Amino acid sequence: MSHFEELLKGLSSLVGSHIRVDSHGKCDLIVNQTLRVQLSLDRIQENLLIASLLGEISAGKFRETILKNTLKSNFPFPRDGVLSYCDKNNQLALFAYLPLQDLSSEKLYEFLKVFIPKADEWRKKILSGQP
Question: For the whole prediction, is pTM greater than 0.90?
């Protein structure tokens, strides 16, 4: 069993739900049927990538305001995820890299307890149209 699979097995125990790696080597967590958080290893398999697409932000004043607010949120460098704009699909994303070397299921769980509410807060801002 890989370290990634061991992390997910431990996380499964902590949250009381079966979590596993899919055939693409990724894991999707669906939170409250509204937020998708993807866990995967980086290319060199030294870091765990945690990412969530938060919603499409169409061109215009709203996008401009959201992006300004994300810059403010990203400074000083956040320890709970970085907000970024994905121009490929016009979506706001939140992501973080956690080094696998010292990562335990408990540390991952504690990180997700901060990451998920931040992602959901920004998802709701986008849905409501209020930056």
Answer: yes
